[in-house]
Amino acid sequence: NAGVTQTPKFQVLKTGQSMTLQCAQDMNHEYMSWYRQDPGMGLRLIHYSVGAGITDQGEVPNGYNVSRSTTEDFPLRLLSAAPSQTSVYFCASSTPGLNPGELFFGEGSRLTVL
Amino acid sequence: GQQVMQIPQYQHVQEGEDFTTYCNSSTTLSNIQWYKQRPGGHPVFLIQLVKSGEVKKQKRLTFQFGEAKKNSSLHITATQTTDVGTYFCAGRVFGNEKLTFGTGTRLTIIP
After folding, report:
1. Window B:34-53, CB contacts with A under 8 Å
2. Which residues lie across from B52 on neighbouring strands?
3. pLDDT, tens digit, 9 for 90 and up, residues A38-87
4. Distance from CA of B31 to the nearest CA of A (A)
5. A81 touches B at CB < 8 Å
6. Does A110 contact B at CB distance below 8 Å?
7. A55 CA to chain B: closest CA distance, Å?
8. Are A76 and A23 in contact (CB under 8 A)?
9. For residues B71, B61, B91 and B27, what is the CA-based torsion angle, rounded to 10 degrees?
10. Per-residue pLDDT tens for A15-41?
11. In Å, what is the CA distance from B104 to each residue of A60, B35, B74?
12. What is the three-class DSSP state of A45?
């Protein structure tokens, strides 16, 4: 049971570099999302997707891009990393519908931007 | 936009004492969920409440959803060291699948 798999677990970037955080789930969940977690600020939604080919912005989308070409994968791209994007990033998925269920989280990716 | 606030931000209790965290939304919610995150871990689902005034229990944990569906609480009776972690509420509004998380309450236990 893989669940939600995130890679890499740790990453250090220099300001201006780009990178992609990978997220894959094997539960056939339509809904996928990315959150960032910073001390004292809880979990803030970056982008989410309700199915392949459909994405939408969350609370803090600036500086991040996403795409959803398959049900399984939902990568998060940082085009030009900034120190303010130093954070722990969580990918999560759930079943869709009128009463969506629980979110299943990946183990997180800790990103440091110097 | 929708905001979900939690109080307190931190709570230190002696082992065996009770603990309560409160969650308040700026908008009426269709449902609310609670998650627990252990130090260094990822959030793990605890429960979902859907009905106005709903109360659910899981062993020593009691969850309530307010009558107006804008607030919720989690109460832990007789805390144990295994209860250490950060507790988050998360709410959805009608017609929108995205889940907005509260700021979390970090619980530490003094043995």
Report:
1. 35, 41-45, 48, 50
2. none
3. 987 889 999 999 999 999 999 999 999 999 999 999 999 999 999 999 99
4. 8
5. no
6. no
7. 11
8. yes
9. 0
10. 999 999 999 999 999 999 999 999 878
11. 18, 9, 12
12. strand
